Structures are given as structure tokens and as C-alpha cells.
Amino acid sequence: MSSLFPALTDGPPGRPALRFGERSLTYGELAAAAGATAGRIREARRVAVWATPALETAVAVVAALLAGVAAVPLNPRSGEKELGHVLSDSAPELVLTAPDAELPAPVRDLPRLDVDAHGTGAVPEDRTSDGDPALIVYTSGTTGPPKGAVLPRRAVAATLDALADAWRWTGEDVLVHGLPLFHVHGLVLGTLGPLRLGGCVRHLGRFSTEGVARELNAGATMLFGVPTMYHRIAEALPDDQELVKALTGARLLVSGSAALPVRDHERIAAATGRRVIERYGMTETLMNTSVRADGEARPGTVGVPLPGVGLRLVEDDGSPVASYDGETVGEIQVRGPNLFTEYLNRPDATAAAFTADGWFRTGDMAVRDPDGYVRIVGRRATDLIKSGGYKIGAGEIENALLEHPGVREAAVTGEPDPDLGERIVAWIVPADPQAPPPLEELADHVARRLAPHKRPRVVHHLDALPRNDMGKIMKRALSHD
């Protein structure tokens, strides 16, 4: 297939490619460093990458892709048990890491190759095909040990090219973010994306509103973040004119990995006049939909299917939903070149993930507007509540609760109810812990905004909601005890 990174060989060698803090590489320097590492791993089948937010991680992954070797990003924050599972399941021949990295026990058992970010070597001739594995990314494992999603090279290319179309993303763009590099968001979109297009990525190392303001005010054009980051931005905006100026001048603000509450959308828009756009993807599918740069930024939606992606909503029995009316809830199923090929060593799970006619079952529930915009209402397993004969998505109730001035954070789950089937339970972090809003007030607030059958019947007050590395609420950790 054609190269994933044509700018490494065809573009100006002095063009900036990567910057992590004070350290940076041009395209010429990246080609030399990745070429040197690629030359040392060409005989391997798979390599692990100790995916810290460092220059060496980007060089290592690019090197693996140049060498035609599948890369397995390792989360440095994983426990030893999870790391042991990932390594035994994927069986990499060696681990690529920054020279100063201290590796935990399971990873220390692998042969280690320290990546030289200033090494010199030639970019190898491309002998790959588009179906060859590019990355094996492990899912979060909420229902058992993490599964390794095998992402082929065509999926990486298809997703990045579709996003370039949707976002008018070019080599002139400079992207800033502080996302982890062991997830699709920070690694594929946030690092490989700019490199495929010949642009530049400036990684903050650790997210901060000060870093965002500094980089956007110094020529960066795009910001990628997760809802937790945009929430912090929304909180800081009223008192930070540098941040207001930075966001106002940005070309594109993109949020992903979880739903951005409508309240934060509106606060950012009110302060800057700029709309954050959302997109929707998964480890197994890369990107499926997005609000387009030339489309309407409709808060609470993830836009329309990307070029090349087929998307449909289906009922519990697999039949297509009757109408796209913005109200009828169905499970999202997708197909296209952006999909993974299999769960590594799990033919049973792979077969169960696809329908007989080749659609991937996402497990995400959504409604679709007549004009094609998709609004996700939650995961089938944790966010779909069947109450009083209605299918109710937790996401819209959470957004409604967040519009109440007494609510700082909100999560919604269902619990068994002998009359309703399931009753709606709200988990609230109050704005004022000394005066949390009572159930009746919250129930009336939701009923007025949505519908009476969507009001919570139980409320729990918490100091904080349990979240993972990407800011997603871990609903299985919310106990009804």
C-alpha cells in the first residue's frame, strides 16, 4: 500500500513534526530516528511500546509502522496483572521505550530496545499491504480481561483521511493536546494524524489550561481533548483572558472519548464565540462520525457518518429502527474500512461482535435526527434503562441534571424496580456539599426539560464520580448498596 506517512520522505525535511515540551523533531529528524529503530526491529512480528507521553513513544510507533511490525501500546498506569495479561496475550518480541524509563516486573522480562530520538537511519522500503496489522490496542476490559483489537493499516489510513475531509485538516494545521498515547484518541488521531498530513503536533506532556493557552496563542490551530479537559477550560474561562483569546483564535476545538455535557458546550461558546465539535469512535472502529468543520456544531450530537462509514440503528431483535425521528433509540452498528479485523486470540468474541451481514455491533445506543445527525444516549450495558415500557438513555438525563445550578457532576444508572422494571437513579456531586439539591427538586427539573417518565426516582450524593484515564465515568463502580 502507499506510505502511511508520505511527508517523511516527500516533504520538506526541515518542517516541524513533533514537539514534547522543550524537545522536538523535524520531519527529516523523525525519518532518521524512526528509520534507525525500524532497521533494528524489521525481523520482529510484534513489538510492545511503553507509551509514556514522550518523543520516544511517537518515534517507536512510527518506526514499527515503517517496518511493517504491529505495535502494542502499553499503558504505563496499568497494574502488573493487566500488563501481564496484555503481554502474554500479544506475545511481543521486545519492548520499545525511552532510555530513562523504569519498567515494572512483567515488562522487564522482555528484551528491551531503548529508542534513540536522534538516531540516524534510512526509511525502509514499504512492503506492507493494507490488511496488515498496524496496532493492537487493548480495550478497557469492563467485562473481563482486556481484549486486543487488531487494527489494520487500512483502518488507520481510512480514519485519518476521513477526518481530514470532515475537519478540513491539512499539513498547515498545528495540533495541541495532552492526551495519553496508549489510546486511539491520543495516539492515532492526536499523533499519527498530523504526521500523515504533514502537519505538526505539540504535546503538552500533562494537560493544563495554561499550556493550552500558550500553544494556541503561539500558532497552534487545533485542540483535541476529552470532556474533563474541556470542563476545566470552561471553569477557567471567566477569569483567564489569555485562554479566551486562545480558544477564540483556534480553527478547530474537538472533544471525544465521552460525551461533552451541553452545559460545558454553552459556557465555552458564550465566552469565546467558538463551538466545540464532537466525534464518535471506538477502539475497534476508530472514527465513525463527526460534526463537520463546515457543518452545524449541534451540542449533544456527534455529527454525521464520516466518508466511507456505513451506520445504522437497530432494535433489540436486529431489525432497523422504524424512523430517524430524533426520539427512537437503537443500537449503533457500523461497517467500513475503519474497522478492526479481529480480537487477538478470541475468535469467539470476534464472531459475536459482528452480524451475519458484516456489521459491527457497537453496544452504543443512539437516536438519529432526520438530517442524519447522531446523538448517543449511552452504552447498552450500562446506560440503557427500560422503565415503564420506555427505552431511556442515561446521557440525556445526565445533561438535564447538569443544567441544575446545584449539580456539579452527574451520572445516571438504572436499578431493578418491581413496578417499573427499572427505576432511574441519579448519582450527584453537589455544587455545595452542605446543601445538596433534594430528589423532588431534581425530579421536577428533569421532568420539565425532558418528560415525566425520565425523572430520577432515587438520588445519591457523592464527593466525586469514579472516572478512568480518559475521563469516562466508570458506572460499574457505582454501587447501589
TrEMBL record:
Pfam families: AMP-binding, AMP-binding_C
Entries under InterPro entries matching the protein: AMP-bd_C, AMP-bd_C_sf, AMP-binding_CS, AMP-dep_synth/lig_dom, ANL_N_sf
Gene3D superfamilies, A to Z: 3.30.300.30, N-terminal domain of ligase-like
Residues in AMP-dependent synthetase/ligase domain copies: 11-344
Family matches, as SUPFAM superfamilies: Acetyl-CoA synthetase-like (SSF56801)
Domain (AMP-binding enzyme C-terminal) ranges: 396-472
Family: Belongs to the ATP-dependent AMP-binding enzyme family.
Database matches in NCBIfam families: PRK07787.1
Protein name as it appears in the record: Acyl-CoA synthetase
